[in-house]
Amino acid sequence: MLPTTRFGGHIVAGHVDGVGVVSKLQQDARSIYIEIEIPQELAHYTATKGSITVDGISLTTNLVRDNIVSLNIIPHTAQVTNIAKHWLVGNKVNIEVDIVARYLERLLNKSQSGGMNTANPQSQITEAFLADNGFMK
Fold first, then answer.
1. The pTM is what?
2. Considering only CA atoms, which of 17, 104, 3, 134 is closest in space to residue 67?
3. Topology (CATH) of 18-97
């Protein structure tokens, strides 16, 4: 990808961060509605209308409530993945969250605790800086 290319989606590394459990599944003519209970320690890396990887499939979150992530799976996605056959209520699924969220958390924790960024001791990355530059709402 070129730096001038529009980026859509999220960045993942292909590592499993935790295991979730399918807690609800409801199908209608337009989509499959799924709720997955993810580990509490991963919940703060997710956001409504954000992205999450489940069993290696990059998906958009419909809604996030506490540690429950809801997804709407369109028919095409259900047909070309293992979702329709293998994601049943009670089944375990592999979860990976966006790595950028992890890096941002680390940077913010260092700046808030007064810790130095060893790569650049002059770094002034703060929540205000990230918000002012479009990285946060």
1. 0.73
2. 17
3. Elongation Factor Tu (Ef-tu); domain 3 (2.40.30)
